[in-house]
Write a structure and sequence with these properties.
This protein is of the alpha/beta class. The chain is built from 17 helices and 12 strands.
C-alpha cells in the first residue's frame, strides 16, 4: 500500500541563527514517528507532504495538503499516516470533505496517537468529535493570542510579524538608511509630492519594501500610514498607546500625513501631480462654478505649437499657458519675498497664539535694548553675547511652537531663502502646484478682445487682470 505522510506545524518559532530560516524541528519529530508507523503497517511511503508554519484553523491554503488530496484523487496514495487528526484538520468543513474523499477512494488512515477507521460510522463519529474539539481548542487559542497581542500593543511591545520598513526584525532597532528615506517621504508628501513620485524616489535610492518587493504608490501609502513610525503602538490598525521603540517622525508629522492620505482623491488612487502648472488647478472664470481648466494645444500661424488652458467642460475659454503660468509664478514669488512672509508659517488657530506672539514681541524689544545698552557702554560684549544668545534660543522655541504643521513643509525653505525664485526653480512640479493651491484660488478669464498688446504681456494691466488670484491665507 502506497502511503502519504502528512506533516504540519502551526507556528515554527525555531530559527537558524546563521541563516534565519525555520528549523522545522516539530515537523522532524512528526516525520520520525510517522515513518515508524508506516514500517509497522508495512506501508510503502510514496510521498511526504510537509506544511511547516501553516495553521489549519485559519482556513488559509495549505499547498502540500492540497497536493496530497490531488494525489489521493489520482490514486497515487492509498493510505495516509499522520501524527494526530488535528494535524490534518481543525475545521469541520475540511474534515467532512476528507471523509467523503476517503470513502470514495477507499483510503486507509493511521495516526500515531491511535487508529481512526473512516470506513465505519463509529470511526467517522470519533473523527467528527475530535474535529469539533480541535475547532473549539483553536478558537480558544485564537482568543488567547488576540488578547495577548492586544496586551502587548497596549504595553508598547513590538509585534512578532513581518519586519516593518525603517526598523530591524526585532521591531525596536531603527535601520538608519530606511529611516532617513521614510522621513524624507513624509516631508515630500507634506510638501505636495504625489505618492507616485515618492515611490519613484524610493526606487531611485535603491530601496525595496521590507519583503524585498518593488516600492509602489500603494506600498508608500501603507508605509506612511503605519503608526509605529511615530512611536505609536497599534492593534488592528487602531493606536492603543505609546511604543517602546524610537520614533522616526514626530506624531504631528504623522497625523498631518494621515489626514492628507485620507483625502478621497488619494484613496481613489488618483495623483495630484499634473503635467502642467495650472491644469486641473485653476478655475474657469467664464463658468464661475468651480469648473477647472484643462490643457490643450494649438498651431500658431508661424507653425509652432503652443500650450493653452481651456475650460474642461465647454469651449468658451482659451488662454496661452505660458503667460498664465508666468503671471501666477510672479505673484507667488512676490508674496513669499515680502517681509511678513514668515507669518504664513504661523498656526493662527492655536488657542495660545496671541500669548506666544506677545512673548515674541517682548523678546524682540529686549534684543533691541541689549543693542542700545551695548552701544551706550552699559554692558560688555560678553554680556551682549550671552544675553542675545539666550533670547534668540527662546525666540526659536516660540517660532517652533507656532509653526503650522501643514504649511511649514511647503513654504519654509522658500520663505527663508535669500533667492526665493532660485529655490522655486529647483522644486518639482507637484510641489509648485501645492504651494499655489495653498496660497491662492486662481481663476482664468477669457482674453480681452482686440489686437494682442505690444511689449511684455506681464506689464499690460488689462491682460494681467484676467488671471485672478484670490489669497487663501
Amino acid at each position: 500500500m502506497h502511503a502519504g505522510v502528512y506533516l504540519r506545524q502551526s507556528r515554527d518559532r525555531d530559527l537558524d541563527e546563521d541563516t534565519g530560516e525555520k528549523k522545522g524541528l516539530a515537523i522532524a519529530r512528526q516525520r520520525e514517528d510517522c515513518l515508524r508507523l508506516c514500517r509497522e503497517r508495512g506501508w510503502e511511503v510514496a510521498e511526504e507532504y510537509p506544511d511547516n508554519d501553516f495553521s489549519a484553523y485559519s482556513g488559509k491554503r495549505r499547498p502540500h495538503y492540497e497536493r496530497m488530496l490531488a494525489d489521493i484523487e489520482a490514486g497515487e496514495v492509498d493510505a495516509v499516516a499522520v501524527w494526530d487528526l488535528d494535524r490534518l484538520h481543525r475545521r469541520p468543513i475540511e474534515l467532512e470533505h476528507f471523509i467523503d474523499l476517503a470513502d470514495r477512494c477507499h483510503l486507509a488512515l493511521a495516526t500515531v496517537s491511535g487508529d481512526t477507521d473512516l470506513a465505519t460510522d463509529s470511526g467517522r463519529l470519533f473523527a467528527r468529535v475530535k474535529g469539533a474539539v480541535a475547532r473549539a481548542e483553536g478558537e480558544r487559542k485564537s482568543a488567547r493570542q488576540q488578547r495577548a497581542a492586544l496586551q502587548a500593543a497596549q504595553q508598547g511591545r513590538p509585534h512578532t510579524g513581518a519586519r516593518a520598513f525603517g526598523y530591524e526584525s526585532d521591531g525596536v532597532t531603527v535601520r538608519p538608511g530606511e529611516a532617513e528615506a521614510l522621513a524624507r517621504a513624509y516631508r515630500s508628501l507634506l510638501a505636495g509630492s504625489s505618492l507616485t513620485s515618492i515611490a519613484k524616489d524610493f526606487k531611485a535610492q535603491g530601496f525595496t519594501t521590507s519583503k524585498g518587493n518593488a516600492v509602489t504608490r500603494n506600498a508608500v501609502r501603507a508605509m506612511l500610514l503605519n503608526p509605529r513610525n511615530a512611536g505609536l503602538s497599534a492593534y488592528r490598525g487602531e493606536v492603543v498607546g505609546q511604543a517602546q521603540w524610537p520614533e522616526i517622525v514626530d506624531q504631528d508629522t504623522f497625523e498631518a500625513a494621515r489626514a492628507l492620505l485620507a483625502d478621497d482623491l488619494r484613496v481613489a488612487n488618483h495623483s495630484n501631480a499634473r503635467k502642467w502648472l495650472l491644469g486641473g488647478l485653476a478655475q474657469c472664470g467664464k463658468c464661475g462654478d468651480g469648473t477647472k481648466v484643462g490643457v490643450s494645444y494649438r498651431h500658431n500661424r508661424s507653425g509652432t505649437i503652443s500650450r493653452i488652458y481651456v475650460c474642461s467642460t465647454k469651449h468658451h475659454l482659451s488662454r496661452e499657458a505660458t503667460f498664465c503660468d508666468e503671471r501666477v509664478i510672479q505673484r507667488v514669488i512676490a508674496r513669499l519675498s515680502r517681509d511678513d512672509a514668515r507669518d504664513l508659517l504661523v498656526d493662527h488657530d492655536r488657542p495660545d497664539v496671541e500669548e506666544l506672539r506677545a512673548e515674541q514681541h517682548t523678546l524682540h524689544v529686549r534684543l533691541d535694548q541689549f543693542a542700545i545698552d551695548y552701544a551706550d557702554g552699559t554692558i560688555t560684549a560678553s554680556q551682549l553675547h550671552k544675553g542675545t544668545e539666550r533670547l534668540r534660543a527662546r525666540l526659536a522655541e516660540l517660532e517652533a511652537q507656532m509653526v503650522h504643521i501643514d504649511r511649514a513643509p511647503l513654504l519654509e525653505d522658500l520663505i527663508t531663502a535669500d533667492d526665493v525664485y532660485g529655490v522655486w526653480l529647483t522644486l518639482p512640479l507637484d510641489r509648485r502646484r501645492a504651494v499655489i493651491s495653498l496660497l491662492y484660488e486662481v481663476t482664468l478669464l477669457p482674453r480681452p478682445g482686440g489686437r494682442p498688446p505690444v511689449g511684455d504681456p506681464l506689464e499690460n494691466a488689462e491682460l494681467v487682470a484676467t488671471v485672478q488670484m484670490e489669497p487663501k491665507i
